[in-house]
């Protein structure tokens, strides 16, 4: 019965030129998302609305699932199209629609008709009344409630007649691409994919960087990060994943710096390298999955120490989240199962028994000077041997 979807979006403040940018980006993202669905679709703007028309056979459930991943969509209304074959036929079709969509008739309803075509022989009020009557006649258990109906049945008279009443909630947010681009530090853990999802939801396109430390971290650990990027890309569109071989840098820090400071110094180099790639690729910020107090490297002092090495803003959308809250989002967006696969994302030799929780930035800087001899060369080599995976 349904052969199209009306796409609802609701962000205040998208006026004038911004409205077009918003709508065009949304159309673009919808087209991308639907590539993964079976069937052919026509995505078009018409009179300030966005429609997805199925052309021929399509998988309804699958299509709705894909649309539910497109940021910027607040609601997805399945639409039944009818040819205009006279008012009698319209009444029959509407009755059939109500019968099929609402097996339980014990409900209130209201018809909301709109004429986009003024040559239609009845006015909106009259259509409301007459269709209402036809429904009541067919299903006497139903009743009209014009203030708070259970079912609001929209009937739009255009070239064709467009009927809808149900809304599947969309993810909300802004279409990806309307908010610039940021570099996500993506590890194989639970937090960073969620962090990327949250920033992308505000319209930001993602690039990602993963610091790989072979042979201390395995190929499978890297594959897990690629898999996570792929799951996130179902919401965001293609992600360029930069893989940095971090082993030599980690070993060098391990050799030259106090072990309690290993994590902090390592994280400072991760941020520096991520920022370098970010600037090269036009990213306007960095994103991490940090949350205050979660581990030693995420205390306020540790965050201050990692933060001070970059100029770009660092977005930490999970900063005030408890682990359980992060897990809930991870489950909802489908990254959790992959994140908890037991492939090590950091070798134990790089984890100190008693990491500093209140690093003193001056001392950290001083200890980083122990690296002066070779660090520049190692960082440059890591950047030169960077691997790019487009997911
Ligand atoms: P996650 O669950 O995201 O791995 P975490 O709780 O394990 O986070 P940390 O290991 O301290 O926390 O890392 C904090 C943040 O630093 C991560 O959320 C991620 O953004 C970034 N990060 C850590 N390790 C890596 C890595 N190997 N490659 C890329 N980014 C990383
Ligand atoms: Mg981690």
Detailed description of the structure:
- The longest helix is centred in the N-terminal third of the chain and has 19 residues, at 16-34.
- The two termini are 35 Å apart.
- The protein contains 13 helices and 15 strands.
- Strand 11 (205-212), helix 6 (219-236) and strand 12 (240-245) form a beta-alpha-beta unit.
- Strands 1, 2, 3, 4, 5, 6, 7, 8 and 9 form a nine-stranded mixed sheet that branches. It has a six-stranded mixed sheet with strand order 14-13-10-11-12-15, sandwiched between helices.
- The protein has helices spanning 16-34, 60-67, 87-101, 124-138, 191-200, 219-236, 247-256, 262-280, 300-307, 323-333, 336-339, 361-368, 375-384; strands spanning 4-8, 40-46, 49-55, 75-82, 108-115, 143-144, 151-157, 161-164, 168-169, 181-185, 205-212, 240-245, 286-287, 314-315, 387-390.
- The chain is of the alpha/beta class and 391 residues long.
- Helix 3 (87-101) packs across helix 4 (124-138).
- It has two domains: 4-169, 2-Layer Sandwich (VC0802-like), CATH 3.30.2130; 181-390, Rossmann fold.
- Magnesium ion is lined by residues 187, 189, 345.
